[in-house]
Write a structure and sequence with these properties.
binds fe (ii) ion; 7 helices; mainly alpha; single chain; elongated; Ferritin; 177 residues
């Protein structure tokens, strides 16, 4: 059985992940409005991944015998200052999400809920990826600067990103009631 305070944190994390999905979708729309279709695609895929994160936690709570409680999702911004502004915001947001994951693990450890501690290792690994991707995108944009040709190539490359559902989610959905 999930401890109440762990369950609360997990439910809050669903909302945070759904907020991340909204945030990245809003960023994707901004890139589309600037005809940076590759960046737009990358952020669109990122948005789908965030929704997948939310759904992983959703299924976990149900499996663990807890109660899912969905909450209001804060509106994301939409007046981004430019490409670099978005890339910087993404790095900051992912660092914040990592801190939330650590809080969950810390609380679950204190409550001796080792199942949650173990399950959330997946999110720890995922956050290493997320932070690395965000930093890489920002770093590459900074290096290439405002050079139009380089931006075009970066846009092309980012546009190759394809969404694949995390196998963990597919497994959880497969065994869902
Ligand atoms: Fe996430």
């Amino acid at each position: 059985m999930l401890k109440k305070n762990v369950e609360t944190l997990l439910n809050q994390q669903i909302t945070k992940e759904l907020y991340s999905a909204q945030l990245y979708l809003s960023m994707s729309a901004w890139f589309s409005s600037k005809d940076l279709d590759g960046f737009a695609k990358w952020y669109y895929v990122q948005s789908l991944e965030e929704r997948a994160h939310a759904m992983i936690i959703y299924h976990y709570i149900i499996k663990a015998g807890g109660t899912v409680k969905l909450e209001e999702i804060e509106a994301p911004g939409n007046d981004w200052s430019g490409v670099l502004g978005i890339l910087e915001e993404t790095v900051k947001h992912e660092e914040y999400v990592t801190s939330l994951i650590y809080d969950i693990i810390e609380t679950a450890s204190r409550e001796k809920d080792l199942k949650v501690v173990q399950f959330f290792q997946w999110f720890v690994d995922e956050q290493v990826e997320e932070e690395d991707n965000a930093n890489k995108n920002k770093g590459r944009f900074e290096t290439m600067g405002m050079d139009g040709k380089a931006l075009y190539l970066l846009d092309q490359e980012l546009g190759a990103r394809v969404y694949t559902a995390p196998p963990l989610l597919t497994t959880l959905e497969g065994s869902a009631p």
